[in-house]
Amino acid sequence: MKLTPTQKVWVIGSGTATLMALALFAGMWALVLAAMSLSVGVSLGVMAGAELGRRRGHVRAATAEAHYAAAAELVDQLHTDNAQLVGRAESAERDLLTATAEKTKLRAQLAQYAGNAA
């Protein structure tokens, strides 16, 4: 995590103020300055947590976008494959109908020849 110069000054200043208060005044002033240092530390912690949350959110969004792109590509490929298979199935069906018609025609011819021979 990168601290801004202002944040660094606050941390150093509050730490210095706490040490001076402990050395010079002790007692109540130390308590007041310790509370101030604590509030600054909590503020920095909240900012750092927000920054980490933002970064994790960006990582999750990038991952979701990559998964979506991969899924979209897969769907496109499946549509293409499906169209090819449908074309092959229709061609096979036409061939089957043609073969059935030819078989029926040949059986009729065979029956005709068998009837003429008898």
- Overall mean pLDDT: 88
Q: Tell me the distance between the termini.
A: 103 Å
Structural class, by secondary structure, is mainly alpha
pLDDT < 50 runs, ≥5 residues: none
Oligomerization state: single chain
Radius of gyration: 42 Å
Q: Give the CA-based shape.
A: rod-shaped
Helical residues, percent = over 70%
Number of strands: 0
Strand content: under 5%
SSE blueprint and pairings:
Elements: H1 5-24, H2 27-117
Summarize the structure.
With 118 residues, this protein is mostly helical. The chain is built from 2 helices and no strands.
Description:
- The protein has 118 residues and is mainly α.
- It contains two helices and no strands.
- The chain has helices at 5-24, 27-117.
- Helix 1 packs antiparallel against helix 2 (27-117).
- The longest helix is centred in the middle third of the chain and has 91 residues, at 27-117.
- It is rod-shaped.
Please give a handful of descriptors for the protein shown.
single chain, 118 residues, mainly alpha, 2 helices, 0% strand, rod-shaped
